[in-house]
């Protein structure tokens, strides 16, 4: 399995196709396999598509090193892009990976040609109309992590899935996606202390790359609120709603998701 070493850590990735680089960043409890429904379609469209596995996610090993943070993962993605030596890339992130992609574009604008955010996770600060951060999702993930740490992996994964997908989300999830979450379950212990800053108006207005926001028609309302605020603040932005899709929109309706991504990249 190929990898690119950033600060002495190998960042593994799946790769397909040739052409301009298109990097995919997965969300909580995910890894490079989270984008399996995208690899063939994006490669066939003429891109060198690379689905990254974030530090400590499968096939890597979980460690208690305290470096499972947003800042560490932002630095890892920026390091991968720099190591490619191909200039700015198209960068797509889902959920927590959307937050990471947003921060890469904010902090390293020279590395991002186009930015695609699929229901980016996080909270809004007051400059974007948000209340002081409630910490509700963080509390839910902390409880899920505690359950996983005590040995109740299925209970913890169920609780985490329902925090983003609503009641019954884990039971509805296909077995291949459950396997990915199980393989990455202990990374949730690190995410509890990831120190994720809320989105601010200044950060959103700093995004220079043309940006696509992708949301699921049937997703939980907290993701819509984030995208509403970002849509108002990011200078060059488009938004697409994926029909018949929840928070796992790239898996729920890959045909429409892939078409929306490729249309935006070709524009």
UniProtKB/TrEMBL annotation:
Region entry Disordered, spans: 157-180
Biased composition (Basic and acidic residues): 170-180
InterPro entries: AB_hydrolase_1, AB_hydrolase_fold, Carboxylesterase_BioH
A Pfam family that the UniProt record links to this protein: Abhydrolase_1
Domain of life: Bacteria
AB hydrolase-1 domain residues: 20-250
SUPFAM superfamilies per UniProt: alpha/beta-Hydrolases
Annotated protein name in UniProt: Pimeloyl-ACP methyl ester carboxylesterase
Organism whose genome encodes this protein: Roseococcus suduntuyensis
């Amino acid at each position: 399995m190929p990898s690119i070493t950033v600060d002495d850590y190998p960042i593994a990735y799946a790769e397909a196709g040739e052409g301009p680089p298109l990097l995919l960043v997965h969300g909580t409890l995910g890894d490079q396999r989270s984008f399996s429904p995208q690899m063939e379609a994006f490669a066939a469209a003429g891109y060198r598509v690379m689905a990254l596995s974030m530090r400590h996610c499968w096939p890597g090993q979980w460690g208690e090193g305290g470096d499972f943070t947003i800042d560490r993962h932002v630095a890892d993605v920026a390091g991968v892009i720099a190591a490619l030596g191909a200039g700015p890339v198209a960068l797509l992130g889902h959920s927590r990976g959307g937050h990471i992609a947003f921060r890469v574009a904010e902090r390293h604008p020279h590395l991002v040609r186009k930015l695609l955010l699929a229901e980016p996770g996080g909270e809004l600060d007051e400059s974007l109309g948000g209340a002081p951060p409630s910490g509700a999702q963080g509390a839910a993930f902390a409880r899920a992590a505690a359950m996983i740490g005590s040995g109740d992996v299925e209970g913890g994964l169920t609780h985490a899935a329902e925090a983003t997908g609503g009641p019954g989300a884990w039971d509805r999830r296909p077995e291949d996606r459950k396997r990915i979450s199980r393989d990455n379950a202990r990374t949730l212990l690190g995410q509890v202390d990831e120190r994720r800053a809320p989105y601010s108006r200044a950060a959103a207005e700093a995004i220079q790359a043309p940006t696509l926001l992708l949301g699921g028609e049937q997703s939980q309302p907290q993701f819509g609120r984030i995208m509403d605020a970002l849509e108002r603040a990011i200078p060059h932005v488009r938004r697409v709603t994926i029909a018949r899709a929840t928070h796992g929109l790239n898996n729920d309706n890959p045909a429409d998701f892939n078409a929306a991504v490729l249309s935006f990249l070709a524009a």
